[in-house]
Write a structure and sequence with these properties.
Low-confidence stretches: none
Number of helices: 4
Radius of gyration: 14 Å
Number of strands: 6
Strand content: 25-35%
Strand order of the largest sheet: 1-2-3
Distance between the termini: 40 Å
Largest sheet: 3 strands, antiparallel
Mean pLDDT: 94
Order of helices and strands: EEEHHEEEHH
Length: 114
């Protein structure tokens, strides 16, 4: 069983609205706050099943106000639009980084369709 890479550095670039996450396997991701907000792992966004997923709109200028560590496994990102219920595990952050291109395109396609 392969273990999920763990972050070695999490840095918020407020001016550019980007969260930079570096992992112990050498990979690093530049994750826009908007991307993180619309892909929040919270039930408020994800629903309790894929059919209940709520499309997030109007989040282009969202930023992160605070990053709160949760034990040794996750962070809560407190966004400036008031959203703060998603717990971003190391695995979630890693997968959001590793699949950023396809996730973002899926989101843009859903926005277009809406």
């Amino acid at each position: 069983m392969s273990s999920t890479p763990r972050p070695t550095d999490i840095r918020l670039h407020r001016a550019s609205h980007v969260l930079e996450v570096c992992f112990d396997n050498g990979e690093a991701f530049q994750l826009p706050c908007e991307y993180l907000r619309v892909h929040s792992p919270s039930a408020e966004v994800q629903g309790h099943s894929p059919s209940q997923r709520v499309l997030q709109v109007g989040k282009r200028n969202v930023n992160i106000n605070e990053i709160v560590p949760i034990g040794n496994y996750a962070v809560v990102l407190k966004f400036d639009d008031g959203h703060q219920t998603g717990i971003y595990s190391w695995q979630t952050l890693y997968e959001l980084g590793a699949h950023q291109v396809e996730n973002w395109q899926r989101y843009l396609d859903a926005l277009q369709a809406a």
